[in-house]
Amino acid sequence: MEIPPRPALFDFHGVSMTKYFTENWDNIQDFKARPGDILIASYPKAGNTWVSYILDLLYFSHMSPDRQDSVPLHERVPFLEFYMPGFPSGVDELNKSTIVPRIIKTHLPVQFLPKSIWEQNSKIIYVARNAKDSVVSFFHFDRMNKAEPEPGDWSSFLQRFMDGKMVFGSWYEHVRGWWEKKKSHPNILYLFYEDLIEDTEQGLDKLCSFLGLSPTSELKKQIIEKVLFDNMKNNKMANGSADEVLDFKISPFMRKGKVGDWKNHFTVQQNEQFSEDYDKKMKNTDLQFRTLL
Ligand code: A3P
């Protein structure tokens, strides 16, 4: 399948977006949630794929091994707002899914979520990752993802991130928007990538308690093993290699999986400028991230 030229970024109701996430807008907004649906929401590069895989294993490990061995994760966990000619849209994939529960990926900022998801009181897991590692991961992702706008060089990308001119908008507004929503919405679990790295088993326990699941210790052990970074990286059904728009010659999708890789990218001056700007943008929130473990 011929991939079209990289898309342009434009303002969409106050959020930078590309056509691949806006052209199906009416169908996205009219999306009908079903009882039991579970949403994994995040700003790009926060670990959505990791949590998707954990959830898919938690719910569907008992199914025939075919599901895990032959269906790519991005088909098992459809991407709600994705819409690219030549590929099935996220909404179509979800509408035809017969699986219960449907596990749904989204990068939408909180104000863009379809009404029906709130009406159904669907469980939502929001995954958040510190800004510095997020921008580094996003930069490498945009280099290898032909469905993203051209990233340009690192310093201009960093500036664009600070300006909120990224696909799915401002990181600062995204993480804060969901954080505030969570305060009045018990069906949102706000999970940090850094916590998941530090103690994956504890993260799994948190997920299970939120979802009301009690997996056997054997299943938990298997899941922890399968979702280790290196094991996922070597798993063709979970490492993004089945995704045609990603160019692994430029960078792997499962790139480093670390906290603090930003130290290898930011210059001292970039770090100072970024931190100063960060403090201004985040001064009115009690949301705290760790940038190192
Ligand atoms: P890096 O680029 O820093 O390596 P998303 O799935 O939201 O796009 O996030 C992708 C990021 O999560 C990438 O970060 C990827 O390597 C990391 N990631 C995915 N699975 C992981 C795992 N099992 N352990 C640690 N990090 C993981």
TrEMBL record:
InterPro entries: P-loop_NTPase, Sulfotransferase_dom. The keyword Transferase applies. Residues 36-285 form the Sulfotransferase domain. Keywords: Catecholamine metabolism, Cytoplasm, Transferase. It is found in: Cytoplasm. GO terms for molecular function: sulfotransferase activity. The keyword rRNA-binding does not apply. GO terms for cellular component: cytoplasm. One of its GO terms (biological process) is catecholamine metabolic process. Its EC number is 2.8.2.-. Belongs to the sulfotransferase 1 family. This is Sulfotransferase. It comes from Oryzias melastigma.
